[in-house]
Amino acid sequence: MMIVSLVMLAVRVLFGLAAYHDASSKSNPDATMWGLLVGFLGIIPGIIYLCIRNSSGNYLLCPNCGFKHYLYDAACPRCGAPTQAPAQNINPLAAQQARRARLFLTIGIVLIGITVLAAVVCFVGFIASVSVRSHGIYY
Ligand SMILES: [Zn+2]
Question: Which residue ranges does UniProt annotate as crossing the membrane (predicted)?
Answer without folding.
Answer: 34-52, 103-128
